[in-house]
Write a structure and sequence with these properties.
It contains four helices and 14 strands. By secondary structure, it is an alpha/beta fold. It is about 15% helix and about 30% strand. The chain folds into two domains: about 140 residues, Alpha-Beta Complex (Nucleoside Triphosphate Pyrophosphohydrolase), CATH 3.90.79; about 90 residues, no CATH class. The strands form three sheets. Strands 3, 4, 5, 6, 7, 8 and 9 form a seven-stranded mixed sheet that branches. This is 8-oxo-dGTP diphosphatase 3. One of its GO terms (molecular function) is hydrolase activity.
């Protein structure tokens, strides 16, 4: 049953955007082998707006639903993705108009590439490796938003964590981590893609620690590798991930 959100929002000058109360779409990631990730993309039906391009499952929000609810509902309707099979990680407003219309991208993970069942709004659906998304002919709005949505790969060695944290990581990785300024696809696959990541426990080091005079001050205050017990190569860039962003607050 259709809700009350279908229709055009008209901005000054006559520019139209679909969704009387805004719109939302689901950016769903799933793990590939060796630490990679894939994104679920929809090849839009030719009769639709910018038909023939690739974008995210999504559509108009109803007046009584959140962006998350709308995105998950649309993914179910357009791709057969069930809410119980995914985990929402974040949401971002990725487009806005003078009329007040907004498009919200909801970021979520699945434990594996799920079976997909296109409806009449799709030519096809596909799980596309993250690095290959921008090789497709993308919907203009999604193409503009994609650079801020794509994830940086990072790998973590659970052996550098406490036993309790290693067990928690085994249960939650791989996954999308929202760091505010960027998204990270964090995995624990040895030899997998991305830079080395370490888990930061509070109190977190300052974002811009004062220079210490050493090119690689392992173990010094402000070093994300402090206390790990290993020697970090001088040319290695370490990505510090707050524990709370992955495992929640420390007990």
């Amino acid at each position: 049953m259709r809700g009350d959100g279908d229709g055009w929002s008209i901005s000054p000058g006559g520019v139209r955007h679909w969704g009387l109360f805004g719109a939302a779409g689901l950016l769903l990631r799933a793990p590939l082998g060796t630490g990679g990730s894939a994104v679920l993309l929809q090849h839009r039906a030719l009769w639709s707006h910018q038909g023939g391009t690739w974008a995210l499952p999504g559509g108009a929000r109803d007046s009584d639903e959140s962006a998350v609810h709308a995105a998950v509902r649309e993914a179910d309707e357009e791709a057969g993705i069930k809410a119980a099979d995914i985990r929402v990680r974040a949401e971002r407003i990725t487009a806005a108009a003078p009329s007040g219309w907004t498009y919200t991208t909801v970021i979520a993970d699945a434990g594996k590439p799920l079976p997909i069942f296109p409806n009449m709004e799709s030519v096809e659906l596909a799980w596309v490796p993250e690095a290959e998304v921008d090789q497709r002919r993308l919907h203009a709005g999604f193409a503009d938003a994609w650079p801020g949505l794509r994830a940086t790969f990072a790998r973590m060695d659970p052996g550098e964590c406490t036993a309790a944290e290693a067990a928690e990581l085994a249960a939650t990785l791989p996954r999308t981590v929202d760091l505010g300024a960027e998204f990270v696809w964090l995995h624990a696959e040895p030899g997998g893609p991305g830079e080395r990541a370490v888990l930061l426990n509070p109190p977190y080091p300052p974002e811009n620690p004062e220079p210490s005079g050493s090119p690689n001050p392992v173990g010094e205050a402000g070093d994300p590798g402090a206390g790990l017990g290993g020697v970090v190569p001088e040319d290695a860039r370490i990505l510090g991930i707050p524990r709370s962003a992955v495992l929640g607050s420390a007990g």
